[in-house]
Each structure stands twice: as structure tokens, then as C-alpha cells.
Fold this sequence. Notes:
The complex is a heterodimer.
Chain A (H helix, E strand, L loop, with lengths): L1 H5 L5 H28 L2 E4 L2 E4 L3 H8 L1 H36 L7 H13 L2 H12 L5 H8 L13 H16 L1 H12 L3 H9 L4 H28 L4 H7 L12 H10 E2 L2 E2 L2 H27 L8
Antiparallel strand pairs in A: 1-2, 3-4
Helix pairs in contact in A: 2-14, 3-4, 4-8, 4-9, 4-11, 6-12, 9-11, 11-14, 13-14
Chain B lengths: L1 H35 L3 H6 L13 H9 L2 H32 L5 H13 L6 H10 L6 H24 L4 H9 L4 H12 L1 H17 L2 H6 L8 H11 L4 H31 L5
Amino acid sequence: MTKHQNKPKFRWxxxxxLAPAVLVYSxxxxxxxxxxxxxxxxxxxxxxxxxxxxxxxxxxxxxxVWSDQFWNALGNNFWFxxxxxxxxxxxxxxxxxxxxxxxxxYAAFYRSAIFIPTILSFVIVGFAWKLILSPIWGxxxxxxxxxxxxxxxxxxxxxxxxxxxxxxxxxxxxxxxIPMMLIYAALLSIPDEILEAAEVEGITGMSAFWKIKLxxxxxxxxxxSILTFVANFNAFDLIYAAQGAxxxxxxxxxxxGTFMYRTFFGFQLQLGDPHMGSAIASAMFAIILIGVCIYxxxxxxxxxxxxx
Amino acid sequence: MSIAxxxxxxxxxxHGVLILYTLIALFPVFVIIINSFxxxxxxxxxxxxxxxxxxxxxxxxxxxxNQGDFFLYFQNSMIVTVASLFFILLFGAMAAxxxxxxxxxxxxxxxxxxxxxxxxxxxxxxxxxLELMVQTGLVNTLWALILVYTAQGLPLAVFILSExxxxxxxxxxxxGRIDGLSEYRIFFRLVLPLVRPAMAxxxxxxxxxIWNDLWFPLILxxxxxxxxxxxxxxxxxxxFVTDWNAVLSALSLAILPVMAxxxxxxxxxxxxxxxxxxx
Lengths: 308, 279
């Protein structure tokens, strides 16, 4: 490298190596991101783009026509996230803890099989569960009947009070493989000496997990939480595939992604409004940014890391 | 003895839990596939039974193959995925090499700038991306999707690949320089072959999200001749909701290519995740 520093010549090859990636990334990702934030400050009057400042946001947060839908979508989105944190991540951690047991046979098979739902598209997952839970087909009621719980069955996806939770659980079913894999990797990276030292002290089994392994994998749990947060507040496909753009029944499964899609593109009688769509996108951006900042400055920097 | 017995009990419990969860994970896929080979009556009468000579039927697949242009959709998905991966790997590796190899003003800033996109989803900019594609006439072309997926994949690719490129020995590169190789040759001939495992990891990470994406095909390329398989099956299923044979067959056909990819690449994928490439 020193050889290059002696040369006064401009090193064109650096520019050539960087240019394609920087150009594509700036043009398709960064520029549209800021252009979208900017579009949120405009509106269309008589087919002309007019600057209106924060008026779109005022409407989005305060004008009942928009704000009812917005707060509904935001609230639903939070519930969606809460279910993932409470169900997906603990199940993922538990599966990883079992899988990482050193003498467990067939671990590779279980790992690959449990990861399969994660690779399927939302369209497949959405429709498959829609069919399975459907009262017409009768698989779900039939199976509940077999264990004597038929009375518990309800057309979950069609009921306002259950639909969102059901879809969240479907999403959990689909993505449990990701926390499982990441935690599994973290658990494997714990050196044997530490676990052996604990064993000598008489800490084994469950207490070894709670007292030794869990504190060591906290950074990975932090990463999983922020990945879940970003993915959830950016979700769209599953709800769209299963319930359509209207996120029925009666908007009970509407989340920010579907709300933005509907607003931006329009549906049925409502015309699409790119400026309101941008305002919603900006709100999503702000939420994701706040989440990432809380993680980076509030959680990650305070977490104790251990070097092995 | 009691410890040994307890250990065995624990092992049984572990297998029990894992088998139960494996069943939960595979059950829906299994139900969809077996029922796609049955007659309409059998689908409803005994949804959990395997197809037998009496109930076997390919009527759903006939409908799908006659009505939907699944070969075209498949081809579109293939082109988009392969082209995007090619550009992500080529451009990503080039940028990663520049960041890992040379010391220059703004190196750190450039690295941070490119890393921004790891956490910020590209979907936030959709409104302006659509405007851009309309202005450049790329709407309803596969290029629109390829460009978007390339931009989406680059940040993580640069991040992972530059980590790996820092580990390539300096002696090797300097030996190349003394032999008069240009910087481009050093990159393509010496460094790229050495980071092939990392390239494979990046490719596998990007492949499945690109193949499965519904959002951008729906917005940027909804026209019939550029539909991807994911969007194509979504639209097809939406139209045939009441034709259960066709819906189940379409779902099975959509599962097939991803499963094939998974079987081929699962070792690479799992190795990639567990080697800590995403940390």
C-alpha cells in the first residue's frame, strides 16, 4: 500500500471500483428516499404540484379522514411487532438452545426443516394458511375436533378481533427460522471452556442456559429485535396476499405498509395520492429511524460484550 | 445411573419438541401438495388423506398450465434474480475491494454511506422510485426490478465482502504488483477467486428475498409479459379463488422452484448464517 502513497498520480482505479455501486445505490436508493421525503411536503392542486409544507402530516395525524386510518394502522403494526417479540423470538431461542446441544442427533435435519417456511414466498404462506384456516375446507376445525376442542374453532381470519393476531402468528410461523439460526450461531460460538468451567461449579442444564449462555447471547438477541422491528414496520406482502389491499375485515389487519400502498395507488373508488403516500412513507421512515437509534445508542452501546 | 436416565429423558424431550415443531413447520406445505393431486371431492371429503388411485387427479395442474403463463413468469423471475445477483456481486465486490484495499480520503465516510442501506428498507422510497422509473421509461420492464434489487442488495454485500477482503494476504497482492499486474487484474485474478465463499453467502442471502418479493413487481412491473412468478401466482390465485384444484396446484408449482433452490443451496445458506456473516 505504501507503494501507492508515494505516487502523486490520481488513482483512477479507486473511482472505477467504487463508481458502479455508488451510482446505482445513490440513484435507486438514497435519491428516491430523499425525494420521497420531499414529495411529502407537496400536494396536487389542479394537476399541478404545490408546496404545502407540513399540511400532509397535519392531515395524517389530525384530520379524521386520514388520522383514523393512520393510528389504526400504527396500532395494528405495534401489535404485529409485539406478537413477534413475544412469540417468534422466544420460540426461536428455545429451538436454538435445544439444537445447540452438542450430542443431539439429526440436528442438521431439524434445522433445515424448520427453516423451510422462511424461504417460501408470502403469497404461498398467505394462501396456504387461508385455505387451512378456512371454514369451507375444514382442516382446522377437523383437527381441533380430533383433540376434542372443536368449540374453540372460529373463522379466525374473518373475525375482526382475531384476524390480526392470527396473521401475526402466521408470520411468526414463517420467520421463526431466522432468530433460531442466528441464536444457534451465537450459542455455537460460546467456547467449551466456559461451559466446562460452569459444569465443574455444578451449573448444568437449564441453569447453565439461564446463567451462562443467555447473558452471552444478549447481543444477538438485540440484533434480532432490531431486525424484527425493521421488518415488521415495513411489512406488507403477507397481509396483502391473505387479506388484500383493504386489509379486512374492516381494516382490522391494516398495517402501515398496506395503508401506504392503498393511499399511494388508490383502490376501488379512492384515487391514488402519491403525496399522501409519501407522507406515510416518511412516517414509516421516522419510526424505523427512531427504532434503529434506540437500538444503536440505547441498547447496543450499553450491552456488555465478551471477547473470547 | 440416575444421571444417565435423566440425560436420556432430556434427549427424548429434546427430540419430542423438535419433531413437534418440524411437523408444525412442514404441515401446511404437505397439506397443500398432497391435495393438489386430488379430485375436488376428495379435497373436501378427506383433506388429510394421501391421494390414491381413486382420488388422484391432475385437473388443477391442467387448469394452471392452460390458463396461466407460468413458464413466462418463471423465466422472468429467473432473469430478474440471476441478473440482480450478478450485479450485486460484481458491483458489491468492486466497491468492497476499493474500501478494503486502498487508503484514501473519505474511505470511512464512503463505507458508512454505503452501510446506511443495511437498516433502511428501500421500500420507503417507493413513490419516488416509481416516478423515476416512469421518467426513464423503465416501468414494466425487467430492468426496473433488476436495478431496484441491485440497489437493495449492495449495502449488505459491500459490508460482508469488505470484511472478507481485509483478510486476503497483502503479500499475495504485492507479489502481483511486483509482477506488473494492474490493480484490475489483481482484483479479478487474485482477490475474487479467494473470496468466492463469501460471494456465495451474499448470493444465497439475496436470492430468496428477490425471488419472493411481491411489492416491487406489483408496483413497477405488473404487466403480463414481465410478471414474476410470485406476482403471477398471486394474481392467478386471486382470479381462481373458487377453483380449489387450480389454487392448490398453483401454490404447489410456486413452492417447487424455491424448494429446489433451497435443497441446492441450504448448506451454503446455513453455513453463511452460522458463520456470523450477518453479525
